[in-house]
Write a structure and sequence with these properties.
By secondary structure, the protein is an all-alpha fold. Helix content is 82%, strand content 0%. It is built from seven helices and no strands. α1 packs antiparallel against α7, α5 runs antiparallel to α6 and α6 packs antiparallel against α7.
Length: 221
Protein backbone atom coordinates (compact mmCIF):
# COMPACT_ATOMS: atom_id res chain seq x y z
CA UNK A 1 0.00 0.00 0.00
CA UNK A 2 1.20 3.57 -0.57
CA UNK A 3 2.93 5.37 2.30
CA UNK A 4 2.02 8.79 3.65
CA UNK A 5 4.58 11.61 3.44
CA UNK A 6 5.34 11.39 7.16
CA UNK A 7 5.93 7.65 6.85
CA UNK A 8 8.41 8.23 4.02
CA UNK A 9 10.13 10.85 6.20
CA UNK A 10 10.37 8.36 9.08
CA UNK A 11 11.92 5.73 6.78
CA UNK A 12 14.49 8.21 5.47
CA UNK A 13 15.47 9.24 9.01
CA UNK A 14 15.86 5.58 10.06
CA UNK A 15 18.07 4.84 7.03
CA UNK A 16 20.14 7.94 7.76
CA UNK A 17 20.62 6.88 11.36
CA UNK A 18 21.84 3.43 10.33
CA UNK A 19 24.10 4.96 7.65
CA UNK A 20 25.95 6.92 10.34
CA UNK A 21 27.25 3.69 11.83
CA UNK A 22 28.37 2.63 8.36
CA UNK A 23 30.44 5.80 8.08
CA UNK A 24 31.87 5.17 11.53
CA UNK A 25 32.90 1.67 10.44
CA UNK A 26 34.41 2.93 7.19
CA UNK A 27 36.71 5.25 9.14
CA UNK A 28 38.29 2.17 10.73
CA UNK A 29 39.22 0.68 7.34
CA UNK A 30 42.26 2.87 6.70
CA UNK A 31 44.38 -0.18 5.88
CA UNK A 32 42.07 -1.17 3.01
CA UNK A 33 42.39 0.09 -0.56
CA UNK A 34 39.66 2.15 -2.24
CA UNK A 35 38.90 -0.75 -4.57
CA UNK A 36 38.44 -3.17 -1.66
CA UNK A 37 36.13 -0.75 0.16
CA UNK A 38 34.11 -0.07 -3.02
CA UNK A 39 33.78 -3.78 -3.73
CA UNK A 40 32.68 -4.50 -0.16
CA UNK A 41 30.15 -1.64 -0.22
CA UNK A 42 28.74 -2.91 -3.53
CA UNK A 43 28.31 -6.43 -2.16
CA UNK A 44 26.57 -5.05 0.93
CA UNK A 45 24.25 -2.93 -1.26
CA UNK A 46 23.29 -5.87 -3.47
CA UNK A 47 22.79 -8.13 -0.46
CA UNK A 48 20.69 -5.55 1.40
CA UNK A 49 18.41 -4.92 -1.58
CA UNK A 50 18.03 -8.65 -2.22
CA UNK A 51 17.26 -9.29 1.44
CA UNK A 52 14.68 -6.48 1.47
CA UNK A 53 12.99 -7.89 -1.64
CA UNK A 54 12.50 -11.22 0.12
CA UNK A 55 10.35 -9.39 2.69
CA UNK A 56 8.14 -8.04 -0.10
CA UNK A 57 7.79 -11.53 -1.60
CA UNK A 58 7.04 -13.05 1.81
CA UNK A 59 4.38 -10.41 2.47
CA UNK A 60 2.76 -11.37 -0.85
CA UNK A 61 2.75 -15.05 0.16
CA UNK A 62 1.29 -14.27 3.58
CA UNK A 63 -1.49 -12.08 2.18
CA UNK A 64 -2.72 -14.25 -0.68
CA UNK A 65 -6.28 -15.53 -0.81
CA UNK A 66 -4.93 -18.85 0.52
CA UNK A 67 -1.98 -17.61 2.59
CA UNK A 68 0.97 -19.66 3.77
CA UNK A 69 1.38 -19.86 7.54
CA UNK A 70 4.26 -17.77 8.96
CA UNK A 71 5.59 -20.91 10.65
CA UNK A 72 5.77 -22.65 7.26
CA UNK A 73 7.63 -19.70 5.71
CA UNK A 74 10.07 -19.71 8.64
CA UNK A 75 10.65 -23.46 8.25
CA UNK A 76 11.32 -23.18 4.49
CA UNK A 77 13.72 -20.27 4.99
CA UNK A 78 15.48 -22.15 7.78
CA UNK A 79 15.92 -25.32 5.71
CA UNK A 80 17.27 -23.27 2.79
CA UNK A 81 19.73 -21.50 5.07
CA UNK A 82 20.92 -24.74 6.66
CA UNK A 83 21.42 -26.28 3.20
CA UNK A 84 23.52 -23.35 1.92
CA UNK A 85 25.62 -22.85 5.03
CA UNK A 86 25.90 -26.60 5.58
CA UNK A 87 27.30 -27.04 2.08
CA UNK A 88 29.87 -24.30 2.79
CA UNK A 89 30.86 -25.96 6.07
CA UNK A 90 31.34 -29.32 4.35
CA UNK A 91 33.25 -27.99 1.35
CA UNK A 92 35.38 -25.26 2.95
CA UNK A 93 35.37 -25.35 6.76
CA UNK A 94 35.63 -29.07 7.54
CA UNK A 95 38.87 -29.64 5.57
CA UNK A 96 40.39 -26.67 7.45
CA UNK A 97 38.68 -27.30 10.79
CA UNK A 98 41.89 -27.50 12.84
CA UNK A 99 43.23 -24.09 11.76
CA UNK A 100 39.89 -22.31 11.49
CA UNK A 101 38.05 -23.77 14.50
CA UNK A 102 39.94 -25.89 17.00
CA UNK A 103 43.17 -23.87 17.11
CA UNK A 104 41.19 -20.62 17.44
CA UNK A 105 39.08 -22.01 20.29
CA UNK A 106 42.20 -23.22 22.10
CA UNK A 107 44.01 -19.91 21.57
CA UNK A 108 41.16 -17.98 23.19
CA UNK A 109 40.59 -20.44 26.02
CA UNK A 110 37.19 -21.52 24.70
CA UNK A 111 35.09 -24.25 26.26
CA UNK A 112 33.41 -26.83 24.01
CA UNK A 113 30.34 -27.22 26.24
CA UNK A 114 29.95 -23.46 26.52
CA UNK A 115 30.10 -23.14 22.75
CA UNK A 116 27.51 -25.90 22.24
CA UNK A 117 25.19 -24.35 24.86
CA UNK A 118 25.54 -20.95 23.17
CA UNK A 119 24.76 -22.53 19.80
CA UNK A 120 21.62 -24.20 21.18
CA UNK A 121 20.49 -20.89 22.73
CA UNK A 122 21.18 -19.05 19.47
CA UNK A 123 19.18 -21.64 17.52
CA UNK A 124 16.16 -21.27 19.83
CA UNK A 125 16.35 -17.48 19.76
CA UNK A 126 16.66 -17.45 15.95
CA UNK A 127 13.60 -19.69 15.61
CA UNK A 128 11.51 -17.47 17.88
CA UNK A 129 12.76 -14.36 16.08
CA UNK A 130 11.97 -15.75 12.62
CA UNK A 131 8.43 -16.85 13.45
CA UNK A 132 7.67 -13.56 15.22
CA UNK A 133 9.12 -11.56 12.34
CA UNK A 134 7.05 -13.33 9.68
CA UNK A 135 3.91 -12.88 11.77
CA UNK A 136 4.76 -9.16 11.87
CA UNK A 137 5.26 -9.04 8.09
CA UNK A 138 1.93 -10.78 7.55
CA UNK A 139 0.00 -8.52 9.91
CA UNK A 140 1.72 -5.13 9.53
CA UNK A 141 3.55 -5.30 6.19
CA UNK A 142 7.19 -5.43 5.16
CA UNK A 143 7.81 -1.66 5.54
CA UNK A 144 6.71 -1.64 9.17
CA UNK A 145 8.82 -4.74 9.78
CA UNK A 146 11.81 -3.02 8.17
CA UNK A 147 11.43 0.04 10.38
CA UNK A 148 11.27 -2.27 13.41
CA UNK A 149 14.58 -3.82 12.31
CA UNK A 150 16.14 -0.39 12.75
CA UNK A 151 15.17 -0.47 16.41
CA UNK A 152 16.69 -3.93 16.64
CA UNK A 153 19.97 -2.59 15.24
CA UNK A 154 20.32 0.14 17.85
CA UNK A 155 19.40 -2.36 20.58
CA UNK A 156 22.34 -4.46 19.37
CA UNK A 157 24.61 -1.39 19.80
CA UNK A 158 23.63 -1.11 23.45
CA UNK A 159 23.86 -4.83 24.22
CA UNK A 160 27.22 -5.22 22.47
CA UNK A 161 28.62 -2.31 24.52
CA UNK A 162 27.51 -3.90 27.79
CA UNK A 163 28.62 -7.44 26.92
CA UNK A 164 31.67 -7.07 24.67
CA UNK A 165 33.22 -3.61 25.03
CA UNK A 166 35.89 -4.92 27.40
CA UNK A 167 36.82 -7.61 24.85
CA UNK A 168 36.65 -5.78 21.52
CA UNK A 169 36.98 -2.00 21.17
CA UNK A 170 34.76 -1.82 18.07
CA UNK A 171 31.81 -3.05 20.17
CA UNK A 172 31.96 -0.02 22.47
CA UNK A 173 29.31 2.70 22.30
CA UNK A 174 30.53 5.75 20.38
CA UNK A 175 29.34 9.22 19.41
CA UNK A 176 28.32 7.95 15.97
CA UNK A 177 26.28 5.14 17.53
CA UNK A 178 24.65 7.62 19.90
CA UNK A 179 23.54 9.80 16.97
CA UNK A 180 22.36 6.68 15.16
CA UNK A 181 20.28 5.75 18.21
CA UNK A 182 18.68 9.21 18.33
CA UNK A 183 17.85 9.26 14.61
CA UNK A 184 16.50 5.71 14.47
CA UNK A 185 14.25 6.31 17.49
CA UNK A 186 13.07 9.61 15.99
CA UNK A 187 12.39 8.04 12.59
CA UNK A 188 10.59 5.06 14.11
CA UNK A 189 8.45 7.35 16.28
CA UNK A 190 7.55 9.50 13.26
CA UNK A 191 6.58 6.43 11.26
CA UNK A 192 4.55 4.93 14.12
CA UNK A 193 2.64 8.16 14.84
CA UNK A 194 1.87 8.60 11.14
CA UNK A 195 0.71 4.98 10.89
CA UNK A 196 -1.54 5.49 13.93
CA UNK A 197 -3.15 8.61 12.49
CA UNK A 198 -3.60 6.90 9.14
CA UNK A 199 -5.23 3.85 10.69
CA UNK A 200 -7.59 6.05 12.69
CA UNK A 201 -8.52 7.99 9.55
CA UNK A 202 -9.15 4.78 7.63
CA UNK A 203 -11.33 3.43 10.46
CA UNK A 204 -13.42 6.63 10.44
CA UNK A 205 -13.74 6.49 6.65
CA UNK A 206 -14.78 2.81 6.71
CA UNK A 207 -17.33 3.56 9.46
CA UNK A 208 -18.75 6.47 7.47
CA UNK A 209 -19.03 4.35 4.31
CA UNK A 210 -20.67 1.53 6.27
CA UNK A 211 -23.17 3.95 7.84
CA UNK A 212 -23.90 5.47 4.43
CA UNK A 213 -24.48 2.03 2.90
CA UNK A 214 -26.84 1.13 5.73
CA UNK A 215 -28.72 4.41 5.29
CA UNK A 216 -28.93 3.93 1.51
CA UNK A 217 -30.18 0.36 1.82
CA UNK A 218 -32.89 1.14 4.38
CA UNK A 219 -36.41 0.92 2.88
CA UNK A 220 -38.11 4.26 2.35
CA UNK A 221 -41.66 4.83 3.65
Amino acid sequence: RPLAAAQWAGCVVVVGGLAITGGDLASSLADKSDDEIAFGASIILVGSVSHALTWVLVEGLLKEAAPILPEAVSAVMGVAGVAVFGAWQLVYTCPRAKALVFDQVAAHGGNAWGILASLALLTAASMAHAVTFYHLVGRMGCVTAGVSKGCQAVAVFLCSHVLFCNVQASQCFSTAKAWSLVLVVAGTTTYALSEGRRSATNDVSELSCHSYRQFSEEPRP
